[in-house]
Amino acid sequence: MDPPGSQKQLISRLTGRVIEEDGGGLTVDVGGVGYEVTVPLGTLGRLGRTAASDVLTLFIHTHVREDAFLLFGFSSSSEREVFRTLIGISNVGPKLALSVLSAVTVDELAQAVGRQELGKLVAIPGVGKKTAERLVLELKGKLEITPGRAVPGPVGPPPSTPAAEQLVATLTRMGFRPAEAERAVTTLSQTRDLTQLPMAELLRDALAVLSR
Fold it and tell me: Which of 35, 70, 116, 120 has a CA between 20 and 30 Å from the CA of residue 136?
């Protein structure tokens, strides 16, 4: 069987409306045909989806097995390429590759690999110490941080208040990664009193933080 990166990509992109969401699975309506697509957590948030009627474009990796024909979708071509690079590594399958891209952005992964931050990689569900070491070894020199974009550093956990917890939960339901939501709320709490502002205003400001 050909390695994952060499498979002929029968479907490389889908543009349509999301008509169903189920965890990391989406059904995308394209011209009346529904395609089941598995995506990393936070994909819809990164695509800026605000309503069910929004037309979105997903970059697709077609994964063919003897018993299945699977579609994996991504918010950018660079994220798709990193996914393909990951599944080309020994003992890293699509499920683990999705787990990686659900936990960290492409730039954060590049930073962790470049700095050999094994602790950050081990914190990803499904990644043990040996797998983290393999990722650092195999990905070294293959990932680049997007020029002009700073990789956010740790800013601490969000405040433990009902407003902060509700805001994190709302952002996560909108499709952002939990780490992205927590970082946005923590950043926002440094300049806003989360207990004194309406949730609609907090959500607007948090989205502004995430768009930077």
Answer: 70
**Residue-wise DSSP of 42-100:** THHHHTT--STT-EEEEEEEEEEETTEEEEEEESSHHHHHHHHHHHTSTT--HHHHHHH
Q: Helix or strand or coil: residue 176?
A: coil
Q: What is the mean pLDDT of residues 102-121?
A: 90
Q: What is the residue type of 183? A: R
- How far apart are alpha carbons 127 and 203 in whole angstroms? 32
98: tokens are: 């999705």
37-80, pLDDT tens digit by residue? 999 987 887 787 666 668 899 999 998 887 888 999 999 999 99
Report helix, strand or coil for 10: coil
Closest CA to 64 of 121, 113, 10: 10
Residues whose CB is less than 8 angstroms from the CB of residue 22 and which lie 6 or more positions away in sequence, other chains included = none
The vertex-103 CA angle with 98 and 107, nearest 5°, equals 95
Asked if residues 121 and 135 have their Cβ atoms less than 8 Å apart, the reply is yes
Q: 114: which 2 tokens?
A: 């470049």
Rounded to the nearest angstrom, the gap between the alpha carbon of residue 45 and the centroid of all alpha carbons in its chain is 9
Angle made by CA atoms 96, 102, 104, in degrees to the nearest 5: 105
